[in-house]
Each structure stands twice: as C-alpha cells, then as structure tokens.
Amino acid sequence: DERQLAFEDLSIALAEVEVQKEHLAAKAGEKTATRPAPKRTIGNLPAALPRIEEVIEPDSLICPCGCGVMHKIGEDRSERLDIV
Predict the structure, then answer these.
(1) CA 59, 61, 62, 67 torsion: positive or negative?
(2) Quick one: residue 72, left, alpha or beta (phi over 0 = left, psi -120 to 50 = alpha)?
C-alpha cells in the first residue's frame, strides 16, 4: 500500500506540471496571436538574384536502336541557392 501512495504522489505531481505547461502555452499563444506573422517566401527565390540556366540534351536525337527520331517526354526544373 505504501508503494501505491508513492506512485499516487508522482502521478499528482505530473498532473500539476502538465496543467502548468498548458497554462504557459495558453499565455504564449495569446502573445503570439497579437503579433502579425512574418512574411516568408519559402520555396521562392527573389527575382533579383542572377540565374544560370543549364540545359542537358543528348548529342543526337537519333535513337541508338535505329527506331527513329527521339522526342522530349518530360522536363525537370529546379532552383537552388548557391555560393560561388
């Protein structure tokens, strides 16, 4: 029975800590709700940055197996920020 009392005291202390955390989180939520969110452009680089376009194509458009002229079936574009 004494062991059960120790566990009960621990669970009460944990519950009190959880209530305090929720109370602090609610206060923090009120403070951040009044401030406007920062303006972010995640995934879009500024247009003023210089761009380097690299096109990778095969040397010849003739199919190596001899079945005719190859044509484009897809395209992949990406942007990344790099320091030169």
Answers:
(1) positive
(2) beta
